[in-house]
Design goal:
GO terms for molecular function: oxidoreductase activity, acting on the CH-OH group of donors, NAD or NADP as acceptor. By secondary structure, this protein is α/β, with parallel strands linked by helices. It has helices spanning 7-12, 51-60, 75-86, 124-135, 166-186, 188-193, 215-235, 257-263, 275-285, and strands spanning 66-70, 90-95, 113-115, 142-145, 197-201, 241-247, 297-300. It has one domain (7-15, 48-300): NAD(P)-binding Rossmann-like Domain (Rossmann fold, 3-Layer(aba) Sandwich), CATH 3.40.50. Helix 3 (75-86) packs across helix 9, helix 4 (124-135) packs parallel to helix 5 and helix 5 (166-186) packs parallel to helix 7 (215-235).
């Protein structure tokens, strides 16, 4: 199966379920917390130096930030679009499918959506022109390259380095590696004007063999991690930061309960991650709180990579 959007991430990084009972091991009994204590990942209250609430205030003041997001239809991409939208950002999405307004939790929807076949690099210049037209010359504050594909064999089995055909290698690299750099190049002026942040979504499979991820997908993610470092070096003089996030097993609608039960015990934190947990890290990387962070690949996998 070939999926675009959340793509390979959905098939490999199966979002995490909460610990039974809604609390993680070691959490305090309700009422025993200090009044100012918060659960991990919870946004601090408004009024402090919180990037989330700062962006909300900026948006209300007419200084709205803009994000271009690929692979927004489900999983990590969908959670990311919702989080940024809740913070007051304008979300411009792109995928090969028409936008489904009934599934969109943020404003704009189909009006801020561009249909792009990321696997056809010859069509990308036209798509980039459409994105630039949507932006209308306004600064671009973030580009998140989340879309990816992870083809399977005819029987649904993992495609290895022994049996992956050349056409599959090419299509995977076009979507997973070539599209991110072409989008960054094509939107360079807008990113420079916005002192923008680029995030490339890599994967834990870029550094280890995975039981589900195919060889072409894994290799493309390793290459994307390398490309992130190159881009960070080249784009930094122009005020553009480039980082990567490498999710592990993340709970998406593709993850079956059986697979989740199989994977969770292999993770040091003994649970699968959630799309929201990944989205929050990306929001940090796109915020002023990460203004001196570039060239990093942040692992979000509950310790699975150690």
């Amino acid at each position: 199966m070939v999926s675009v959007g959340e793509g390979a991430h959905a098939e490999l990084r199966h979002p995490g379920a909460e610990h039974p009972g809604g609390q993680h091991p070691g959490s305090q009994h309700p009422g025993s917390q200090h009044p100012e204590a918060r659960h991990p990942g919870e946004m601090p209250p408004a009024g402090g130096a919180c990037p989330f609430h700062n962006d909300q205030r900026e948006s209300r003041s007419g200084r709205q930030k803009t994000l271009v997001l690929t692979g927004a239809s489900r999983g990590i991409g969908h959670a990311t679009g919702k989080l940024f939208s809740d913070a007051g950002w304008r979300i411009v999405t792109c995928s090969r499918q028409p936008f489904q307004d009934d599934r969109c939790p943020w404003s704009g929807g189909s009006e801020d959506h561009v249909e792009i076949e990321l696997g056809d690099y010859r069509a990308l210049p036209r798509a980039i022109s459409a994105l630039k037209e949507r932006l209308g010359g306004a600064p671009l504050h973030a580009l998140i390259n989340n879309a990816a594909i992870s083809p399977k064999g005819m029987d649904g089995d993992r495609l290895t380095s022994l049996n992956t055909p050349p056409d599959t290698w090419m299509s995977v690299f076009h979507v997973n590696l070539l599209a991110p750099i072409m989008l960054a190049q094509g939107l360079f002026d807008e990113l420079r004007a916005g002192s923008g942040s680029i995030i490339n979504v890599t994967s834990i499979v870029g550094s280890r063999v995975h039981p589900f991820a195919g060889s072409a997908y894994a290799t493309s993610k390793a290459a994307l991690a390398c490309l992130t470092r190159e881009m960070a070096h080249d784009y930094a003089p122009y005020g553009i930061r480039v980082n990567a996030i490498a999710p592990g097993e993340i709970k998406t609608d593709i993850l079956s309960p059986e697979t989740e039960a199989l994977l969770a015990p292999t993770i040091p934190m003994r649970r699968i991650g959630t799309p929201d947990e990944v989205a929050k890290v990306m929001f940090f990387l796109c915020s002023d709180a990460a203004s001196y962070v570039t060239g990093e690949e942040i692992h979000i996998n509950g310790g699975q990579h150690v």
